[in-house]
Specification:
The chain is mainly beta and 238 residues long. The protein is built from no helices and 22 strands.
């Protein structure tokens, strides 16, 4: 929320280390290797997943004091996490039975609800700004589609033949994703009613993120055999 950037890097030869950049300096946040994380709504804490000790575990990190607190979860083998906008719940992806399922837990690790546990993978959870909906990805007929959970039931959102991945929400409640096929993806706006995904520009991306302070999209574009970083402001979020 304060404009700081958090990112993973293997610059030390490990997969991966977690860093924070404030525009002047970059600092490492933990000595543990990290493979997934998410920031608290107030920006004062984050949660991260590490398998440094042999088991995949969830930790809560206070960004002011630097204190790390392991969270003893009632579900095992977490592989993804998303902190709810209200700050009191986490959506956790866990591989318990050979595929990735989606669960809701509190900050102490207690299981509150099973969101989705089909035989397919459920991944990439992303909360809407008001916390009323959770978007996630799951394959349907071998094609990655977006689903929405409203706290009670799950519904299929996108339905076309292309893949839909990496859902993100703008601060205005608009949903975006990477849509495409054969490894090439474009930023698309997703209609929350009928699931239509409309490409916003012709360039191919591999990463999509939201810049919270500006309400813009931060995209990574592969161009001329290297990656470039761009900031894009959709018309509907200006």
């Amino acid at each position: 929320p304060d404009g700081h950037i958090f990112f993973l890097s293997n610059c030390h030869g490990r997969l991966y280390d977690l860093f924070q950049a404030d525009g002047e300096q970059v600092r490492s946040l933990t000595e543990r290797t990290v493979f997934a994380y998410d920031l608290a709504p107030d920006g004062r804490q984050l949660v991260f997943l590490s398998d440094e000790e042999g088991d995949r575990r969830l930790y809560r990190l206070d960004l002011v004091s630097g204190a790390e607190t392991p969270v003893e979860m009632e579900i095992a083998n977490p592989i993804g996490v998303a902190w709810s906008p209200q700050g009191d719940r986490l959506a956790v992806v866990a591989n318990i039975k050979g595929d990735a399922d989606l669960f809701l837990i509190d900050l102490e690790g207690r299981l509150l609800q099973v969101i989705a546990d089909t035989e397919a993978d459920e991944t990439d959870p992303a909360w809407s700004p008001d916390g009323a909906q959770l978007a996630f990805v799951s394959p349907r007929d071998h094609v990655d589609q977006l689903y929405l959970w409203d706290g009670h039931k799950v519904r299929l959102l996108t339905k076309d033949d292309g893949h839909h991945r990496n859902p993100v929400w703008s601060r205005n409640g608009n949903l975006y994703c990477l849509a495409g096929e054969r490894g090439y993806y474009r930023v698309a706006a997703v209609d929350l009613t009928d699931g239509t995904a409309v490409s916003l520009w012709p360039y191919r991306e591999s990463v999509l993120e939201v810049v919270p302070t500006a309400g813009a999209l931060l995209v990574v574009l592969y161009n001329d055999r290297h990656f470039e970083l761009y900031r894009y402001q959709p018309e509907e979020d200006k």
